[in-house]
Design the sequence.
């Protein structure tokens, strides 16, 4: 993956660190990812109310911090300069580090975006975060963000993106590309909704032709453009291995047409979906 471009495959950690019985498997999966070139980890203060960050911090011990790209997020009701600082300090403590590579507003709240940006700029100036961005923002939100002082410094927007949720392709993708804002897609299997993407015959055919699983095809599809970062959780080493192998799957135009037949591209504006 490219840290500069923020593309490729990253590790999502929602629901990781919450069950002590799964801890060893989850840490082993994170270690396998880090040992095999998957060096972007995405977490949030919301995930298990800090338990995910604690697990990530434990898993990172012994690794070169400079070679890991860490993303975390803060609650929208913490989106003021004072509360952002408190949230960040707590996240850094749980993670056992002294800076974040990327810090995101988790979703749109009631605080003024100008205050949120002002606080993030101060944290960035102090070196506590390298870059900042947002999550679960739609095109109108991004346009509004760009009207406030410093809003154009937004590095990334992270949104739900998978076969069942392609609405961002219609207007948000083009807008962000035009304005130089990177895109991160989360939940490529729609796992937050219980793996609810239907398994079609076409998906099975494509998977068979690549000697892959349907989930690997879903992940390869999400990464197909090479222009975005896709986050995928893996609670076991076997899942991490499957995710890593999906990076080598290159879907042909014919295969993409088969997939599009079941999961059409959006032809009009759709409301932004979240999990």
Sequence:
């Amino acid at each position: 993956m490219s840290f500069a471009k923020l593309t490729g495959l990253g590790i999502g950690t929602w629901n990781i660190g919450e069950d002590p019985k799964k801890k060893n498997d989850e840490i082993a999966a994170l270690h396998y990812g880090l040992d095999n070139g998957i060096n972007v980890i995405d977490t949030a203060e919301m995930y298990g109310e800090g338990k995910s960050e604690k697990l990530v911090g434990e898993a990172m011990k012994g690794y070169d911090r400079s070679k890991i790209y860490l993303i975390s997020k803060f609650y929208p009701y913490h989106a003021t300069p004072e509360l952002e600082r408190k949230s960040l300090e707590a996240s850094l403590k749980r993670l056992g580090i002294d800076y974040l590579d990327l810090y995101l507003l988790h979703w749109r709240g009631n605080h003024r975006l100008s205050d949120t940006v002002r606080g993030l700029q101060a944290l960035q100036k102090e070196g506590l975060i390298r870059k900042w961005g947002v999550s679960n923002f739609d095109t109108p939100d991004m346009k509004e963000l760009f009207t406030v002082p410093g809003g154009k410094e937004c590095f990334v927007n992270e949104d739900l993106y998978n076969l069942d949720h392609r609405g961002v392709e219609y207007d948000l993708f083009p807008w962000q590309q035009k304005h130089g804002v990177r895109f991160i897609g989360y939940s490529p299997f729609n796992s937050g909704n219980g793996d609810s993407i239907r398994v079609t015959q076409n998906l099975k055919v494509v998977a068979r032709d690549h000697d892959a699983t349907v989930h690997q095809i879903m992940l390869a599809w999400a990464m197909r453009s090479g222009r975005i970062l896709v986050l995928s959780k893996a609670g076991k080493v076997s899942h991490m291995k499957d995710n890593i192998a999906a990076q080598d799957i290159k879907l042909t135009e014919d295969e993409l047409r088969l997939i599009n037949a079941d999961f059409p591209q959006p032809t009009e504006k759709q409301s932004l979906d979240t999990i």
Summary: Residues 81-95 form the longest helix (15 residues). Strands lie at 8-12, 40-42, 69-74, 100-105, 129-135, 156-160, 182-186, 229-233.
